[in-house]
Specification:
This protein is an alpha/beta fold. Helices cover 23% and strands 36% of the residues.
Length: 138
Amino acid sequence: MAGQIWINLPVKDINKSKGFFTEIGFSLNQGPGNADDKASLVIGDKNVIVMLFTESTFERFTGNNIADTTKGTEVLFTIGADRKEEVDEMVTKVVKAGGSIYGKPHDQGWMYGAGFADLDGHRWNVLYMDMSKFPAEK
């Protein structure tokens, strides 16, 4: 576990959220962390872990209230893509799985990306960056 990044998120419905994230390409973590009040998923090949907790379990765990995602954004998670088509594929999967798009795919020359919200309003974006086209600093 040393050196790994674990993202912990509160969700209203573990099963629906687990279904959403597996539909968009996350895989179930076969290790510990799966129960009625939590689910463990893996993002990409860097093995970043996303832990989903029921809201009551999350509040108990953090000792704090959950941010209202309808009123503000506490954090933005970014997922790297290897090509522009991967960004478009993710957008299609998100919509099919029940998420929403807050930033349609857009091209900035060296960067192509889109933004989406999961079932609980947590904001994510997916980006392809071509560093060979990165504008030189002046």
